[in-house]
Amino acid sequence: MSQTSTTADKLAVVETLYRYAAGLDLRDKDLLASAFAEDAVADFGPATRKAGQEYPPVGGRDSIAAALSSSLSHLDTTHSLSNPRVSLDGDTAHLEGIMACQHLPREDHSRHVLMTNRYDVDLIRRGETWVVQRLTVDNAWTEGDPAVLAGI
């Protein structure tokens, strides 16, 4: 694989997480779903348990998009990916990165919870597009009021 195609693939892998974040923040369920393989699995449990909530793993692109859209529907959010590290192996990739996730109740921006989460992501190439096959999110630290996530 040439250096140019390796660089392009790494950028395309990172762009998958940008689609995911934009789908969340813009409340665009189709854009969010486009980041996942049909049979993807997303596990937010390691992060949500630290915030005092249980969120079981979710399987399937449409189920993941629906679950995330529903659980964040009462919030204004900003998700920012940093420090992405990508390794490639043919049509599979692995990404580790940090996602800063700001959550504010839509009706009361005086409260918030900022979670900085570690993302561990396996991706596969589908045609010209990279999609998430498995996503695991663990919390590095939290600042603010975790009750915001529950709509309390």
TrEMBL record:
Residues 7-136 form the SnoaL-like domain. InterPro entries: NTF2-like_dom_sf, SnoaL-like. It holds the Pfam family SnoaL_4. This is SnoaL-like domain-containing protein. It comes from Amycolatopsis keratiniphila subsp. keratiniphila.
